[in-house]
């Protein structure tokens, strides 16, 4: 009965939004208290987060949108290029600002990220490096950054995107699963695997674990990557975890980025959701927690698609809302351990707050991947998520 009543209210609200217009009172943030805040709806399951910048968090807060989240991720402010622009010289002001905002708003903060092949400072990417010097720099950076944010964060993405973007069966069978060479090239990028082999992953997690223990910090340590719903990429992550565990190196969880596209889901909804659930189940069965760390649902089939909408069509928005709901439904299903020693889904985070700020828009077309519109109004995804 409760869900039926909520669904009726949600449908009425959606209809009013389209009939009255995006700026009308019926869609204003004040109505969220009638339908509910997302993080409150899932408070018994997992935290709900959003990636933010220092430049937009206050605007979203003023619009009432930040009430939906009890976790935030620094979209850029804690990446290596921003916190250590010169060797040994740190710039924590932007990250500290987000932490201060979070404290004032009783919100947790995710650290993103300690080592990635991208978003590195020029002093590092242009430096003559050996394996030994690269690992020493890596250890120092992790130690300094984690020490600065001691007790302020609940999780760190220790290592980000260390695997091939796409993995074939032959690569999986041969063990050729690590990102390197041209995949890790470009401005502000570094081929960590080419320099250090898998030792950069091991040293990142080993150092992070040593630092948290020395600080008495209970921050969790995660590996974060994309397309982990793909069965072959999923098995590559299993190999990565097994490699760490074989050396006695701690890892607490897996971050599934979840940058998805609506046409992939619509092509075969059952198959898409089965792959997603299989990954969640595989990781939690290994005793790992799962976070959906960078969720967005793009409406075009690929970046170069010539298809272009003049505004988001209602039927597309409805389908996108259903996809969001299916993802949240699976996450709720695994929000408690399914057996002793198993992990759980303990966070779902969208990569952004509203469609007015998204990396996914290009010169070819405007994307609409998030839960709230460019006008900071609730989309169908919000009503679907809140009424599960």
Give me the Rg, rounded: 21 Å
Order of helices and strands: HHHEHEHHEHHEHHHEHEEHHEHEH
Number of helices: 16
First CA to last CA: what distance?
12 Å
- As for the number of domains, it is 2
How many strands, which pairing sense, and closed or not: the largest β-sheet?
8 strands, parallel, barrel
Strand order of the largest sheet: 1-2-3-4-5-6-8-9
* Basic shape: globular
User: Beta-sheet strand percentage?
Assistant: 5-15%
Features:
388 residues; globular; TIM Barrel; alpha/beta; 14% strand
How would you portray this structure in words?
The protein has 388 residues and is of the alpha/beta class. It folds into two domains: 1-69 and 258-388, no CATH class; 77-251, Glycosidases (TIM Barrel), CATH 3.20.20.80. It contains 16 helices and nine strands. An eight-stranded parallel β-barrel has the order 1-2-3-4-5-6-8-9, surrounded by five helices. Helix 4 links the parallel strand 1 (47-52) and strand 2. The longest helix has 20 residues, at 314-333.
Question: What would you say about this model in short?
Answer:
The chain is built from 16 helices and nine strands. The chain has 388 residues and is of the alpha/beta class. It folds into two domains: 1-69 and 258-388, no CATH class; 77-251, Alpha-Beta Barrel (TIM Barrel), CATH 3.20.20.
How are the SSEs placed, and which strands pair?
Blueprint: H1 2-20, H2 32-35, H3 38-41, E1 47-52, H4 57-62, E2 71-74, H5 80-83, H6 93-104, E3 108-116, H7 122-125, H8 131-148, E4 155-160, H9 169-174, H10 192-196, H11 199-215, E5 220-225, H12 231-246, E6 253-256, E7 259-261, H13 262-267, H14 269-285, E8 289-298, H15 314-333, E9 345-350, H16 380-386
Parallel strand pairs: 1-2, 1-9, 2-3, 3-4, 4-5, 5-6, 6-8, 7-8, 8-9
